[in-house]
């Protein structure tokens, strides 16, 4: 890996998700960077090719805005569907960007948020299985549990990517400035 840097606004980057043991989990082939700072990366994608660890591929069905923050152990995907905005939140390591891709470790736990604001914590069984199999430390477990709480507070308080203005601004910016043809 090279020196970590900041992805440039308007550039197209890969997103690579890993598991704790270093194995590749999932790769999004192309995300357009809408904002890149040393703390936050916001991107947009639509009909993006995704490759799973077993080689299977699929294409995202709807436009989405992705949100990564260097201080928090989660990232958020805001998906725009006909009946509203759905959020898929991955509990993960903070991101790094190294010119090859934006990268993070996926820690199994997810929160799905519906347009009406209701949300559910998902994949607790998978988390327990991988925690044992990949030997997540107690520190990692404590950090992730704390970040589940932080994420739930953000959802309930409509903070960060859950704020209505966030969606309006970044969806508009993606649609108007960086539309893929």
From TrEMBL:
InterPro entries: DUF402, FomD-like_sf, Ntdp-like, SA1684. Mg(2+) 1 binds at residues 90, 106, 110. Gene3D superfamilies: FomD-like. Mg(2+) 2 binds at residues 108, 110, 123, 126. It catalyses: a ribonucleoside 5'-diphosphate + H2O = a ribonucleoside 5'-phosphate + phosphate + H(+); a ribonucleoside 5'-triphosphate + H2O = a ribonucleoside 5'-diphosphate + phosphate + H(+). The active site is at residue 26. One of its GO terms (molecular function) is ribonucleoside triphosphate phosphatase activity. Keywords: Hydrolase, Magnesium, Metal-binding. Residues 21-159 form the DUF402 domain. Its EC number is 3.6.1.15, 3.6.1.6. Its cofactor is Mg(2+). The keyword Cell inner membrane does not apply. NCBIfam families: PRK13662.1. Has nucleoside phosphatase activity towards nucleoside triphosphates and nucleoside diphosphates. Belongs to the Ntdp family. This is Nucleoside triphosphate/diphosphate phosphatase. It comes from Salinicoccus cyprini.
């Amino acid at each position: 890996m090279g020196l970590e840097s900041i992805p440039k606004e308007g550039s197209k980057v890969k997103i690579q998700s890993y598991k704790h043991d270093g194995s590749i989990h999932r790769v999004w082939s192309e995300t357009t960077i809408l904002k890149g700072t040393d703390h936050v990366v916001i991107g947009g994608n639509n009909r993006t090719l995704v490759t799973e660890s077993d080689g299977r591929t699929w294409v995202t069905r709807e436009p989405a805005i992705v949100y990564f923050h260097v201080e928090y152990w989660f990232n958020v995907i805001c998906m725009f569907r006909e009946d509203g905005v759905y959020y898929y939140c991955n509990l993960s390591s903070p991101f790094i960007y190294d010119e090859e891709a934006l990268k993070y470790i996926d820690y199994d736990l997810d929160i799905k948020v519906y347009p009406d604001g209701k949300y559910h914590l998902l994949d607790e069984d998978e988390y327990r299985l991988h925690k044992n199999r990949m030997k997540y430390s107690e520190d990692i477990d404590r950090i992730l549990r704390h970040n589940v709480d932080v994420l739930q507070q953000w959802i309930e308080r409509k903070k960060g990517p859950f704020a209505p203005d966030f969606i309006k601004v970044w969806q508009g910016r993606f649609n108007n400035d960086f539309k893929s043809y």
